[in-house]
Amino acid sequence: MTATQEETRVLGPAQLRHAFGAFPSGVTAVAALTGGTPVGLAASSFTSVSLDPPLVSVCVAHGSRTWPLLRDRERLGVSVLGAHQERACRQLAAREGDRFAGLDWTATADGAVLIDGAAAWFDCSVEQVVRAGDHDIVLLRVHEIDADHAVAPLVFHASRFHRITSAAPSTEEHR
């Protein structure tokens, strides 16, 4: 079946958020030093893009007041937040207040800010910014990485934070 012009309808933000919320995602902190002070935001739209060259991406809303402070930094840190870092994520997503109050973080020599205790981190530079609707797709070239698979990631699904639990082994795994 193909849709005709009459059957095509405009999708509203609430409908889109509801459907997009069916797809679980990890949560990242994107941060850098600006004038010696850490500046950052939370982003759940992080994904791997390419192995050669090493690229990842995040999407940032055009209305973000933080992205303009970060976009021209030499390096950006992307930290994959752990299940124990829900409070840090809420702080980094807040519109007001000191987003880094009480958070442990490390800055690289090039100014990328990495959240201590994260499941993984990426030291990146902006490769390209692609305007897409009401967001920018930010392609980031990865320069340095590390990961701790013992740290369970923080997961965002259906507008709530979740933690991954170990599933019981299937009967196929016992064979």
UniProtKB/TrEMBL annotation:
Any one GO molecular function term: oxidoreductase activity
Coiled coil stretches, renumbered: none
Matching Pfam families: Flavin_Reduct
SUPFAM superfamilies: FMN-binding split barrel
Superkingdom: Bacteria
Residues of the Flavin reductase like domain: 20-163
Enzyme class: oxidoreductase
Stored InterPro entries: Flavin_Rdtase-like_dom, NADH-dep_flavin_reductase, Split_barrel_FMN-bd
Sorted UniProt keywords: Oxidoreductase
Entry EC number(s): 1.5.1.-
SMART domains, alphabetized: Flavin_Reduct
Statement: the UniProt record of this protein carries the keyword Oxidoreductase: yes
Record-stated family: Belongs to the non-flavoprotein flavin reductase family.
Name of the protein in question: Flavin reductase family protein
Lineage: Bacteria, Bacillati, Actinomycetota, Actinomycetes, Kitasatosporales
